[in-house]
Structure formats: structure tokens, C-alpha cells
Specification:
Elements (H helix, E strand, L loop, with lengths): L4 H20 L40 E4 L14 H13 L1 H25 L2 E11 L17 E14 L4 H67 L5 H35 L22 E4 L5 H4 L1 H22 L4 E12 L11 E9 L7 H67 L5 H35 L14
Parallel strand pairs: 1-4
Antiparallel strand pairs: 2-3, 3-5, 5-6
Helix pairs in contact: 2-4, 3-4, 4-5, 4-7, 4-9, 7-8, 8-9
Length: about 500
């Protein structure tokens, strides 16, 4: 039985609709992005990876346990249990100009994505109004039967619509790349936050260490000054040679020369802290940091190497750039294929502005298909350039992963060395304290001179100075490990430190 004309028209329309839908939902050309595989390594360091550090019987000398597979808390600096450090880092995160720049770049990327999305996915509609003053001379056209009219005004109003079909997914790939650009800026912000928090913590620990060094150096200077005074008295009494006094004078001068440099370092550290908080150094409101006010974390989380690519924001930023480079290959590939643009125009023209919108007397529909034929190799070269850019981004991503693994490995070995150094410094300080106790007892009994007592005190102060430096290193490298692991930015902000 033969189909009716109406049914044939309906079938044709259905077929055309299906073809249009298939074209709009066609797979986009170019590669679909996949995240590179996670590092397939069992540990961060070669040989035996440390699970705990050695201990020393001094303040901040406890062993640190490295909890494999544990996640870093979001507020990782709270592990040091210092209210002053917590307030300072929070203030820096709230007021840093660096973070404000990063936040503005995110907003810029989002607005660019929004603008391009509207331009690519929706039709372009423009309304036009125009007025022209014209005159027609019939004589110039060879028409002499009618007189030429006088000048007249022609009013026009129209609406133009155009839309380019995304037949091969080039526009979708472009939007995919812009979404990856937004992700990149977001991860850059998280990296900036992590870096800022790490810098503030490191500066605070450095300040605490410098204050300890200044206190111990001043104590050494006082002991050396008393030694020099006694040596001068003995010199006048003929009990020592001039060269011995000169040697002690040189030692005192060398110790005194250390103080201005330490004071300058302390001032520079506080100036830098002020800048981190978005404040001028002259008017910054900063607490004073001391080692006694910090607590060394007894347990440090150590996430697995296979998760570091998802934990470090700089690696995630490199991944976003890789995603954008992959999408750009699809954009360049789509340029090799035909582009179909549909357009329409509807409006009216009238000799009277009052009658302009009374009727529709001008309209047009058009479809344009453009197939590149010869561009001098431009389009193929651009596709190859996009592929080369992807390879470059892939290498940069791999380098970022390797850098992350190296920084964690360095921090682990540094913590191990710091604990061993602190143990040795603690033994040295204990021996110096024992010697000072013995010499003090002998001095009270008249067995040794005051000069010997002061020399024992000086040696003890020097051992205490080295111990303070080793203690500060443990704090600094603990913060470095937490930062190298990614700082826990992906965790809920209210997560408490253990």
C-alpha cells in the first residue's frame, strides 16, 4: 500500500530531525582526555623509608612517628599547637595580596568561559534599526514617462539570527579547554594558599630559632666578657701572658660580631611576615614567636606516593594545563572539517516610522557550508602544533610529579637527619652541663679559678646554641614535609588537627 503524501512529508521531516540531532550530538574530534597513571612506586626514598625518628632527652626531642597512608589535615599548621601561629596564618590567608590576585584570575577565567559558552552554544541575535535619506532620478535610468519623486526617508527594522552548528565538536572542545583553564586557576589558588601558609610557618619558626640563637649568643658574650675582665686582672698581677688576654679579646669580638647579623635576620624575618599578612613592616601587628611556644608534632601523616598527584595542587594545576592542551588538539582538528552556518533575517521597511512595525515585508533564510580546501598547510600545521603543545604539557606534568616525590623524599631524610643531629647536640649539651656542674662544685671548694668556671659556662652556652639550631631545624622540616605532601587543601576546612 502506498503511503499518503502527508505521511511521506512527515517521514521526511522526521528523518531530517534525526539527522540534525545526530549532527548536534556527534562525538567531538580529537582525543578524549584521560588523567595520567599515578606513580607506581612503593615509597618516596631509596632503601628503607623511615617510619619513626630517633629521640633525645631534651625539650622537643621526642621521636616522630610517620603514619603511612594518613591524610594531612586542612589546617596542618595546627599540628604545632601554637595559637599565635594559627592566628597569623589565618590573617595571612585573609589579607594576602598574592591570594587576592589568584582569586581575581579565577574570576577572569570563569567570565571568559561564560562569555564563550554563550557565544558558541546559543544563536547570535542582533536587532537593527536604520534610517536613510534617498532620492531616485528616473531620467538617469532612461525613464521619462514619470517625473522623478522628491527626496524621501526610508525606515528599516530587522532581526538577524545566525548559528554555527558544532558538527565535529570543535566548539565543545574549546569550552572543554576553557573549563580546564578555570580548574588551572583554581588549583593555582590552592597552591598559593599552601605556599603562603608554609612560608608563614617557616618564617615564624625561623624567628623563634633566631630569638633562641640571640639569647644564647648574648649569654656567651657575657661569659666571655667576664673571662676577659678576670684575664685583665691576672695580666696586671703578672699571672697570665699578654697573648692569652689578646686571644680572649678576639674570641669576645667574634661573638659580639654575630649579634648584629642575627638581629638583622630577625628584623628581616618579621618584615617578611608583615608582607605575608598584607601589612607594612612599620605598622604590622605581629606576635613574637619562641621555640618554647611551639609543639613538635609527635605524629606526622605520610600519604602514599600513589596519591601525591591528587594531593598536591601544583600537580593538579599541571594536570589542568594538560587537559587544556588535549582539548586544543580537538579544536585544531575540527578546523579541518566543514562548518555549517544557518542564518535568518526578518524585518520591515517603510516610508513612515509610524508604520514601520505594522507588517513584516523583508525576510531571508540562508545556510552556508565552508570546507577548507587550500590554506597553504596552515590548518595541518596548527594541529601538529597543538599535538606538540600537548607533549610539552605532558612532560611538564611528569616533571611536576617527580618534583613532588623528590620534595617529600628530601623532607623525610631531613627529618631523619635532624633527629640524629638533635640527639648528638643533646649529648654534647648534656656533657657540657655536666662539666659545668663539676667545675662549679670545684670552684665553690676553691679547687679551680673563676676563669675555668667561666670557660665551662661558655662551652655550655655554645652547646645550647647548637641545640637550639637543631631544634628549629626539626620544626622547619616538619612543616616542609606537610607542605610537600600537599597541605590537606582537599580536606574539609573544619577538620581538626590530631
Amino acid at each position: 500500500m502506498q503511503a499518503s503524501p502527508q505521511r511521506r512529508i512527515t517521514s521526511h521531516r522526521t528523518a531530517l530531525a534525526m539527522l540534525a540531532a545526530a549532527a548536534l550530538t556527534a562525538c567531538a574530534v580529537g582525543p578524549d582526555f584521560t588523567v595520567p597513571a599515578a606513580p607506581a612506586v612503593p615509597a618516596y626514598t631509596a632503601g628503607t623509608q623511615p617510619e619513626r625518628t630517633s629521640a633525645a632527652d631534651v625539650p622537643h626531642g621526642q621521636a616522630q612517628v610517620l603514619e603511612s597512608g594518613a591524610d594531612v589535615p586542612a589546617q596542618w599548621w595546627a599540628l604545632f599547637r601554637s595559637p599565635a601561629l594559627d592566628r597569623t596564618i589565618r590573617a595571612a590567608l585573609d589579607a594576602s595580596p598574592t591570594l587576592a590576585q589568584a582569586q581575581a584570575r579565577i574570576e577572569q577565567a570563569r567570565q571568559e568561559l561564560t562569555a564563550t559558552t554563550g557565544a558558541r552554544l546559543l544563536p547570535r541575535v542582533d536587532a537593527r534599526l536604520n534610517t536613510t535619506r534617498e532620492q531616485v532620478n528616473f531620467n538617469s535610468l532612461g525613464i521619462t514617462a514619470f517625473p522623478s519623486p522628491g527626496p524621501f526617508t526610508l525606515y528599516g527594522a530587522s532581526v538577524e539570527i545566525s548559528y554555527t552548528l558544532d558538527l565535529f565538536g570543535g566548539q565543545r572542545r574549546e569550552l572543554e579547554g576553557l573549563r580546564a583553564a578555570v580548574d588551572y586557576q583554581r588549583f593555582e589558588l590552592e597552591a598559593a594558599r599552601l605556599t603562603l601558609a608554609g612560608n608563614v610557618a617557616t618564617a615564624a619558626i625561623r624567628e623563634a630559632g633566631l630569638r633562641a640563637q640571640i639569647a644564647d649568643t648574648e649569654a656567651i658574650v657575657r661569659a666571655q666578657q667576664r673571662q676577659l675582665d678576670i684575664a685583665g686582672q691576672r695580666l696586671r698581677a703578672g699571672g697570665v701572658a699578654e697573648v692569652d688576654v689578646q686571644r680572649q679579646r678576639n674570641e669576645l669580638a667574634q661573638s659580639q660580631a654575630l649579634l648584629p647579623g642575627l638581629a638583622q635576620q630577625l628584623a628581616a624575618t618579621r618584615h617578611q611576615l608583615a608582607v605575608y599578612l598584607g601589612q607594612a613592616p612599620a605598622s604590622a601587628d605581629l606576635p613574637e614567636f619562641r621555640l618554647a611556644d611551639l609543639t613538635l608534632p609527635a605524629t606526622l601523616p605520610l600519604s602514599l606516593p600513589s596519591t601525591i598527584a591528587q594531593r598536591r595542587p601544583d600537580i593538579r594545576a599541571a594536570e589542568a594545563l594538560l587537559h587544556q592542551a588535549s582539548a586544543n588538539i580537538g579544536v585544531a582538528t575540527a578546523q579541518l572539517y566543514p562548518q555549517l552556518t544557518l542564518s535568518g533575517n526578518a524585518g520591515s521597511q517603510s516610508l513612515s516610522a509610524r508604520d514601520l512595525f505594522g507588517s513584516l515585508n523583508v525576510w531571508s533564510l540562508a545556510a552556508g557550508l565552508v570546507q577548507p580546501v587550500f590554506r597553504g598547510g596552515e590548518l595541518v600545521a596548527r594541529k601538529r602544533a597543538a599535538e606538540a603543545a600537548y607533549e610539552q604539557s605532558l612532560a611538564a606534568y611528569q616533571q611536576a610529579v617527580l618534583t613532588g616525590l623528590r620534595e617529600v623524599a628530601d623532607a623525610l631524610r631531613a627529618l631523619e637527619a635532624d633527629a640524629n643531629t638533635l640527639q648528638a647536640r643533646a649529648d654534647s649539651a648534656r656533657q657540657a652541663a655536666d662539666t659545668l656542674a663539676v667545675v662549679s662544685g670545684q670552684y665553690r671548694l676553691g679547687g679551680v679559678s673563676q676563669l675555668a668556671l667561666l670557660d665551662a659556662e661558655r662551652q655550655y652556652r655554645q652547646a645550647a646554641l647548637a641545640l637550639a639550631q637543631a631544634t628549629a631545624s626539626r620544626f622547619t622540616d616538619s612543616a616542609a614535609l606537610l607542605q610537600a605532601l600537599g597541605g590537606g587543601w582537599w580536606q574539609p576546612q573544619e577538620s581538626a588537627a590530631r
